[in-house]
Amino acid sequence: MAAREGAPRPGEAAGGARPHMPRGRAGGARHRLVRLHAEPPVWSLGPLRLRRYRAADHATVLDLHREGLAQVGLRPGDGVYYDHDFFRMEDIYLRNDGEFIVGELDGRIVAMGGLRRADLVPAGRSRALGGHVLGGPALDSAEMVRLRVHPDAQRRGYGAAVVAALEQRAAEYGYRVLRADTTELQAPALRLYARFGWTETRREMIGGIVNIYLEKPLR
User: Fold this and answer.
1) Sign of CA dihedral 146, 27, 12, 193
2) For 42-90, what is each residue's pLDDT tens digit?
3) 90: buried, middle or exposed (CB in 10 Å: 19+, 13-18, 0-12)?
4) Which has the closest alpha carbon to 208: 70, 71, 75, 67?
5) Quick one: CA dihedral 18, 117, 201, 205, positive or negative?
6) Of 21, 124, 157, 181, which residue is least crowded by CB atoms under 10 Å?
7) In sequence order, which residues have a C-beta less than 8 Å from that of residue 129 and are 6 or more positions away?
8) pTM, full prediction
9) Which residue in 77, 75, 4 sits closest to 38, CA to CA?
10) Which residue, 213, 150, 146, is CA-closest to 183?
């Protein structure tokens, strides 16, 4: 998977403007997100190394996903929870103008996040049922999904690093707008999106849970 011709240089957003680059703390020192390699993408934030997902990561990222949702009380069958995309990583993320990155700390995956075309997986209640339809050739909007940080590695800026890296990738691919959704139960995710300038567009009640939709224009 290669970025489009004329894409911004590593570390630049669309139009030449630099994206928000988070700072994190580790061992009392402050660190800044740095792009180390263009393709496949690699970043660092102090001791954290962000890289593209590999098939060997599957069990670990699935466990991290499930643990993160269980922490806020989301579970299979609630109409919001779903994990079918983890079994189609290549189709949904890596072969269709998307990205999925993991964050390693001392060789252990502690963070992750994905970027996928918004037309690949349905929104709302249909999402939990496993719908999957390949879209057309036009790139317009992408979804930022699966933002997770292991409890042992939270409050170090790692979630912000994943968001900044994925926003950078979305700009490189030429997307016009980014979309995301989370629940009112996931307050840290809502604060993180707000910090990066995302705005709420609507709310939807699904299985007794309020699902919140957000958006951020890229150009």
Assistant:
1) positive
2) 999 999 999 999 999 999 999 999 998 888 787 776 667 788 889 999 9
3) exposed
4) 75
5) negative
6) 124
7) 82
8) 0.80
9) 4
10) 213
Residue 15's identity, in one-letter code, is G
Q: How many CA atoms lie within 13 A of 41 on its CB side?
A: 30
Write the CA distances from 43 to 65, 108, 121, 122, 214, integer angstroms.
Answer: 21, 16, 27, 30, 25
Tokens 């579970």 sit on residue = 75
How far apart are the C-alpha atoms of 57 and 197, rounded to whole Å?
A: 31
CA 165 to CA 33: how far, in whole Å? Answer: 8
Give CA–CA dist 19/144, Å, rounded: 16
Q: What is the number of residues in the chain?
A: 219
